[in-house]
Amino acid sequence: MNVPELNRLLKNVSVPGTRQMANRVAGKPESIDLTLGQPDFPVPQAVRNRVMQAVDNEPMKYSHNRGTLELRKAITDFYKDKYSAEYEPSNEVIVTNGGSEALDTIFRTIINPGDEVIMPAPIYTGYEPIVTMLGGTAVLVDTTETGFIPTVQKLEAAMTQRTKAVLLNYPNNPTGAVYPEGTVASLVELFKRHDIFVVVDEMYAENTLDGEHHSFTSYPEIKDRLLAVNGLSKSHAMTGWRIGWLLASAEMIEKLTLVHLYNTLCASMPSQIAALEALTGAADVPAEMNAAYKERRDYIYRRLVDMGLETVLPEGAFYIFPSIKEYNESSFDFAVELLEEAGVAVVPGAAFSEYGEGHIRISFATGMENLEEAADRMEKFLNGKK
Ligand code: PLP
Hints:
By secondary structure, the chain is α/β, with parallel strands linked by helices. The protein folds into 2 domains: 8-43 and 285-385, Aspartate Aminotransferase, domain 1 (Alpha-Beta Complex), CATH 3.90.1150; 60-281, Type I PLP-dependent aspartate aminotransferase-like (Major domain) (Aspartate Aminotransferase, domain 2, 3-Layer(aba) Sandwich), CATH 3.40.640.10. The protein contains 12 helices and 12 strands. It has helices spanning 17-26, 45-57, 69-83, 98-110, 127-132, 152-158, 181-192, 250-264, 269-281, 285-306, 331-342, 368-385, and strands spanning 32-33, 93-96, 116-121, 137-142, 163-169, 197-201, 226-231, 244-247, 319-320, 344-345, 347-348, 360-363. Helix 3 runs parallel beside helix 9 (269-281). Belongs to the class-I pyridoxal-phosphate-dependent aminotransferase family. Its EC number is 2.6.1.-. Its cofactor is pyridoxal 5'-phosphate.
């Protein structure tokens, strides 16, 4: 029997470059893996304790489709305290299965075939496939000339009659770029002039290493078009627990809830209980992790600069994105050689769109010893290339 034809849009989607590189490194135990997109810290003890106790004593049935009210209130309280953002727990937040489901729910709610979504690039590998699978188009805007931060002019120039949304991510994966307050304020002015949705992925907001995260949720004047995504995967080292959320106006949440509920009914209950504990009993954890990330960031930045690589200092997340353009080869070839010859695994910049080409992404979500050894190996490798 012939297998029936699949969804044709799948032809435009392939396995992300991050995963391809992680698979290559899996068979090389002696190599140092700097491809990792997840914190190397344990899940906070308070979170683990709370879940163990809950599993024995609580029913763990379905929750409300939008998540337990206690957790939704903890999320909206967090946004109120941190960003002076006013969101109603009852009808302006949905708890999702990770940030990924929040993004998927958003685009399935707003995209019609032919719609365009503007994405400042380099971009996270997960974005383009979601939009493509809906028959939409990702319109990439180059940020490599402006420290990986988009400008009002370039975003506005990319807008057309078909533009449905802009998707912003900061602290950024893969560049570690953070938007200054002035940039956020000027983008708010831009978005006030255009009838488009503003989707902001704040998954790394708690991993802002210098200064404060400036959130679009602090600007009520664009609340009607703002869709904000966040979660605990990065902030609390809870990638496998699959807890994220999205914030939006009550009108939008009504529609978003339909998509979310027919997809998944509700987020996992044990993880929702864990998430409530993370936001209330383990609120200091991100700052503790950031102290370690900062030390590692400063170290690896200095080493890369000393190796002669043009590198933007990342102000958030746990990635650094040096240029390898002077070596005149594709980022994929460079990364494969670095792995085969020096035993250091990194992600080729091209995995993050054409605007990532000429770079590599190094994750510093790993211990100092690993970073030191990797930097030594890399330096030797580069000296051999000169
Ligand atoms: N957004 C960005 C920018 C990410 O880097 C990731 C994961 O690496 C996600 C979203 C997905 O988050 P989650 O693991 O909570 O689904």
